[in-house]
Amino acid sequence: MHISLVLLAAAAASSPAPAQVADKSGYSLANPTPREALRDLSTDRPDKTESPYTVDAGRVQVELDFVNFTRDRDRGSRAQTLSLLPVNFKLGITNSTDLQLLFDPRVRQRVKDRATGRSDSVTGVGDLTLRLKHNLWGNDGGGTALAVMPVVKLPTASNGIGNDAVEFGLIVPLAIAVSDRVGIGLMSEVDLLEQADGSGYAPSFIHSATVSFALGERLGVYSELFAERSTERGARWIVTADAGLTYRLSDDLQLDGGVNLGLTRAADDLQLFVGVSRRF
């Protein structure tokens, strides 16, 4: 069993019973959650560790990068990727479930051969990803929260950007409230990804852990460790150390930014991003 799954099970087993909260089960798309009953704004960004909290029923939440830049050097080449306005649209279906649509409308990839100086670039749209997040407990109170989130990626990317394959995944995020100002997030994920030679699918496992700190009423910071390993032959560990900050402008609006640094050769060397989340 993977270590993060052990941590998830241990935390769940030792967590106290959730505090009593108002019954919100009657809210739906047709009967949206009123403002006075909304939970605190929770986002799946800016860190890679997803949140177990869902968008309230009948509410819409938009999370996006203004700009996302990635750079990587590997075996004589240098690659750069610039994404503009990659977005996650969320819709609260019930008090415990939301539907998410992720799309990258503008991607530019450039690869330069460092020996010859030749550059190749491609510009287009990215893949479309659908996710359904269901909170199992802790959505509206308690020291922990857990969710499950099945994922399907549809091959809508332009030629040269995606791999033209339908791919699947399952994400299990856990949140632990250490105190009013400190929180821990753990995530385990398994994906079925098409192998590079097109011979079939291979499982890929992701584990991450993040620690967040509230520095006052509006400002927050986080640090994170992320690791991914495919079972495909020849695959290498992808490990990054991530950090960033959030700034709450209102109950429904949050700005963020961060940096992800590659710790292994298979990981991108550097990723920088600035974004925003808005609830309606």
Q: What would a concise description of this structure say?
A:
With 280 residues, the protein is mainly beta.
What does this structure look like?
This protein is mainly beta. It has one domain (3-17, 34-279): Porin. 4% of the residues lie in helices and 55% in strands. It is built from one helix and 15 strands. A twelve-stranded antiparallel β-barrel has the order 1-3-4-7-8-9-10-11-12-13-14-15. A hairpin with a 2-residue loop joins strand 13 and strand 14 (253-262). It is globular and about 65 Å long. Mean pLDDT is 92; it is low at 1-19.
Task: Using the CA coordinates, give the radius of gyration.
Answer: 19 Å
Mean pLDDT: 92
The fourth-level CATH homologous superfamily is monomeric porin ompg
Could you give the order of strands across the largest sheet? 1-3-4-7-8-9-10-11-12-13-14-15
Helix content: under 10%
State the domain count.
1
Distance between the termini: 40 Å
Query: What's the CATH architecture?
Result: Beta Barrel
Spans of at least 5 consecutive residues with low confidence: 1-19
* Number of helical segments with 4 or more residues: 1
Strands, count: 15
CATH topology type: Porin
Main pleated sheet: 12 strands, antiparallel, barrel
Shape: globular
Counting copies of identical and different chains, the oligomeric state is single chain
Look at the structure and give the CATH class: Mainly Beta
Helix and strand run: HEEEEEEEEEEEEEEE
Give the strand content.
Answer: over 45%
Computed structural class: mainly beta
